[in-house]
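// run 5 | inverse folding | seed 20
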């Protein structure tokens, strides 16, 4: 990736899969960081999977606790339009929801997702 270090716009001109592969070759950049850069900096339709997403989707009963990053990302990509703004907004809303309600120890009484199987436990 050395040839792009001084010009992220040149890096972001790569096709999305090549951009992701290039970012993943950088020491310290994993799928979550690469996808965050693709979605938020390059403005490409890429859903970012993080611990909050995994926790929420598991509690909603949509996925098992051990679901992989790729499985979760594919589920979202298949369910929603490939729109960078929408996917970024969904991720941001999940983060906000998890910080307020779906914590490691859930705060269900004020949670707006009363249909959640974990609600009230």
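// decoded
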């Amino acid at each position: 990736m050395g040839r792009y270090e001084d010009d992220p716009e040149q890096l972001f001109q790569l096709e999305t899969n090549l951009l992701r592969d290039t970012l993943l070759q950088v020491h310290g950049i994993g799928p979550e960081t690469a996808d965050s850069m693709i979605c938020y900096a390059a403005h490409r339709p890429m859903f970012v999977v993080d611990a909050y997403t995994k926790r929420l989707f598991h509690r909603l009963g949509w996925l098992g606790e051990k679901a992989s990053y790729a499985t979760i990302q594919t589920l979202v990509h298949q369910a929603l339009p490939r729109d960078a703004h929408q996917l970024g907004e969904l991720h941001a809303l999940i983060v906000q929801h998890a910080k307020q309600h779906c914590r490691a120890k859930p705060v269900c009484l004020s949670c707006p997702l009363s249909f959640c199987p974990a609600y009230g436990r």
